[in-house]
DNA sequence: TCGTACATGTCAACACGCTGACATGATGCA
DNA sequence: TGCATCATGTCAGCGTGTTGACATGTACGA
């Protein structure tokens, strides 16, 4: 209690650098996606649906680390713009399977182009080996913090 | 335009893993700081002021990647609670130098204890060597994305 | 000296995400 | 069968952060 702990400058603390990297990347992606009239959340939602068609709102929310309510807003917006299609009637429980509309797939293709540019720029200074290592180390951090707990962000 | 680009699952994309790590870390820090009645933003603000006393609101905002306006709200809250002190009159331009109050330093010491636990847990699976490498790689990513641009988040 | 540019603090309005709460449909068990 | 439990979708309210705008104080150059 005598001294206030860590004296290392924030620039060398993993947490700080991690936040900075996430912030800068998000800003860069926002800029890249703005001409396509897509936010990062909307883009991520479309890409997830391309890889895993038929996901429900709750499943998408978990995959994107946001609440069901937030995801619901994203889905409503994308549906209203004709970029995706939700079953009007739940085939099983209350879950509404969601799929990309043709317009959504088209928009996503352009978005992936733009995002790819940003990603390449970000990783320009890293070897493929370093890139894999970075992913692995970050994943190790996530699991060390108890990845098992966050079944959902809210709830 | 024929195929929608990246087919790699999102779990292996740096951007996705980066966001996940940042989200999980923030959640863990929020939990750790809640008993102390501090948010992550408030904690970061106090820690920055400990390392660099006398910073103005705008300087703090830049260091924390938020807008001046957001930082202003954080500072008002901390000042009202007696955790920091702002010069009532600007000594030079309009910038108001800010310093930790004794109560703030005390609270910060406890907060650093709590945050240190979370950080240790997160880095448990990494060697010190890997930790440094992780920081370096993330910093490289930030700089590759054009670290020079974001003078301020807003503006 | 004047005026332009720039940085800072502050107010207002808006967007996004979260928590809390509720209703509904499915599942499992007594 | 009846009931408890769980997951999902949805509504309302709140907090946080952002953009836009404005006033003020400083520094620089004609």
Automatic annotation (TrEMBL), chains A, B:
SMART domains: HTH_MARR. The keyword DNA-binding applies. Keywords: DNA-binding. InterPro entries: HTH_MarR-typ (IPR000835), MarR/SlyA-like (IPR039422), WH-like_DNA-bd_sf (IPR036388), WH_DNA-bd_sf (IPR036390). GO terms for biological process: response to stress. It comes from the Bacteria. Residues 11-144 form the HTH marR-type domain. The keyword DNA-binding applies. GO terms for molecular function: DNA binding; DNA-binding transcription factor activity. Pfam families: MarR_2. Signal peptide: none annotated. PROSITE patterns: HTH_MARR_2. This is DNA-binding MarR family transcriptional regulator. It comes from Pseudosporangium ferrugineum.
């Amino acid at each position: 209690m005598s001294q206030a702990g860590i004296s290392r400058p924030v620039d060398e603390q993993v947490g700080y650098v991690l936040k900075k990297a996430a912030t800068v990347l998000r800003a860069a992606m926002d800029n890249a996606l703005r001409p396509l009239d897509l936010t990062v959340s909307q883009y991520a939602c479309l890409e997830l649906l391309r890889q895993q068609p038929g996901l429900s709102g709750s499943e998408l929310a978990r995959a994107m680390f946001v609440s069901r309510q937030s995801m619901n807003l994203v889905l409503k917006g994308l549906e209203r713009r004709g970029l995706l299609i939700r079953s009007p009637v739940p085939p099983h429980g209350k879950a509404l399977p969601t799929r990309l509309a043709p317009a959504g797939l088209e928009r996503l293709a352009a978005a992936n182009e733009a995002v790819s540019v940003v990603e390449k720029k970000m990783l320009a200074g890293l070897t493929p080996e370093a890139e894999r290592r970075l992913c692995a180390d970050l994943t190790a951090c996530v699991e060390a913090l108890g990845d098992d707990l966050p079944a959902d962000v809210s709830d």
